[in-house]
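Worked Example 4.2. Consider the chain below.
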Amino acid sequence: MEWLLEMDGQFLLWLKETCAHPVLDNIMIFVSALGDGGFIWIALGLLFLFIGSKHKIWQRRGLFLLLSLAANALVCNLLLKPLVNRTRPYDLLGYAILIPPVGDASFPSGHTSASFAAATAIYAMDKKWGMAAYAFAALMGFSRLYLGVHFPTDVLSGAVIGVLMAKAVQRFFRMGINKKSI
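Applying the procedure from the previous section yields the following structure tokens:
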């Protein structure tokens, strides 16, 4: 396990040395801020619910997206983060970061996990929009690495957890609540 922690740290230091640029700094800060509290994805889910007041399929889609985010938040933020309690990389490696220090544990990446949960839900609704959502989710994960607030294994684990949570909610939707397609 020690070798994995070493690789995680070395990758972040390499990324900081090779990719840092003022323009990219601002872009990554903006992208990461969109994921604060799952804001962009919750807003999208609420928009779907609002549209759903006239078109019922959008109501189901909004509910599916929001339930995927909720399931993800339960597993990622309420269960795994406190259980693993991994120290943030900037605390371990001692470097300055571009955003205010984060108050919770590092593993798994909540921003990445929520983004991949949302992208998986959106992909189940529409493959074209889902691919765009996956691209944005990957960018969100990269922003967390670029900003130095997560290790690569935090981001990769967050992506896997997000996909699994949305798939679980999708299965629940199809088997229990609603037989119609999402």
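Residues 10 and 93 are 10 Å apart (CA to CA). The chain is about 75% helix and 0% strand. Compare this with Example 4.1 before moving on.
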